[in-house]
Write a structure and sequence with these properties.
By secondary structure, this protein is an all-alpha fold. Helices cover about 80% and strands about 0% of the residues. It has one domain. Helix 1 packs antiparallel against helix 3, helix 3 runs antiparallel to helix 4 and helix 4 packs antiparallel against helix 5.
């Protein structure tokens, strides 16, 4: 059903311009773990709002959690460099948030 709605949106470009519609489409694909399609839906949304950005960031973070679970599922144990990489990622996100807050 979701892909049919996507087709309808493509046929009616005025719908694609609505951030709410784009966010819903991206969310639909993210919940189906179709990360590339979710990101494409994000990219074609011309008027991205805070919800758009939060959705795509959440999708990205959830995907990374899946990768960590996959790594653990293959009995590959994270080492210090793995933990350091995760911490660096969290710090970079934290810095971006702090820069945005101080800019307001």
């Amino acid at each position: 059903m979701g892909k049919q709605i996507h087709g309808y949106i493509v046929q009616h470009p005025s719908l694609a311009e609505d951030a709410t519609v784009g966010n819903g489409l991206a969310n639909f694909y993210a919940k189906r773990d179709e990360i590339d399609a979710a990101f494409q839906a994000f990219l074609i949304t011309p008027q991205r709002d805070l919800i758009s950005w939060n959705s795509v960031l959440g999708t990205f973070l959830n995907t990374r959690n899946h990768l960590l679970a996959w790594m653990l599922g293959e009995r590959s144990k994270p080492r210090d460099i793995t933990i350091l990489t995760l911490i660096k990622f969290c710090i970079s996100i934290s810095r971006l948030v702090m820069e945005k807050v101080t800019a307001i």
